[in-house]
Amino acid sequence: MSTNTSSPAATPAVGRWQRLRDSYLAYSFKRDWGAQLCLAILLGLISMALLAPWLAPTDPYDLAQIDILDSELPPFWVDGSDARYTLGTDAQGRDLWSIILYGTRVSLLIGFGAVLLQALLGVVFGLMAGYLGGRVDAFLMRLADIQLSFSTLMVAIVVGAVVKATLGGAFYSDYAVLMLILIIGLAEWPQYARTVRASVLGEKRKEYVDAAKTMGLGSRRIMFRHVLPNTLTPIFVISTVQVANAIISEAALSFLGLGMPETHPSLGSLIKAGFDYLQSGSWWITLIPGAVLVVLVLSINLLGDWLRDVMNPRLYKG
């Protein structure tokens, strides 16, 4: 006789709620033009970033394509512009449209990479803390409290100083993307851990968990195969907000000189590179990448707010 590893009593209710949630999600998205616009903008920016090698007129990493004599050329709608450079050039003579495309790709890579690391650590620690309880819960939550006492900026300063002192500044510049993913990911994982722990505390008292224990399933299998799928809703909502926060963190760190170097453009390093030229009249070097950053973060945040409202379980009662 085969053994069913799921609870028969819980499966119909969970399946019915999931079908109702998915149908309401699609219905709400079709009726919300704001969510559609934000998703279209986000997908457009992601697509342009991924296609940067084909869409960009020049390669900002190729020094042979850069002419310092073309530096600080204005955009096409300003007098003195050059038809070769639609959005103008920066102080090094690089095409601004090209470095924005490449810079957006770097910012998105850091944002999604950092959130992936946050989710991996936070979900595992949150599951263990909520399900196992006791000393494991107390230790992990105190560890989260200690981590939350250090801001992302403080972690970046400490890690950057240690790496530069031991391995050199050139090493930090070469591996700046990986370093920022680690810094932002390690600094923000408690957000996931606390949310997952709260969801697990409610789930582990339900009948399907008791049924799985009665059938002799191990704690690891119950946590990851049965409890985790029922805690994914808040994880998805947090992830949208955390991607935007990670991109902003990267921009802030790069602006302060703790992130991406100017030779490897990101939206934050582009804003920093042009900040010194604002008063000289070359406003486009900072303001145009800044506008792209605002649109990118705003579209992610608004999409996350819509997702949070739609996936609120209270909407499906009755």
From TrEMBL:
The chain crosses the membrane at residues 37-56, 106-131, 143-163, 169-187, 227-248, 283-304. It is a multi-pass membrane protein. Residues 104-304 form the ABC transmembrane type-1 domain. Keywords: Cell membrane, Membrane, Transmembrane, Transmembrane helix, Transport. Its main location: membrane. It is found in: Cell membrane. Pfam families: BPD_transp_1, OppC_N. Belongs to the binding-protein-dependent transport system permease family. This is ABC transporter permease. It comes from Billgrantia campisalis.
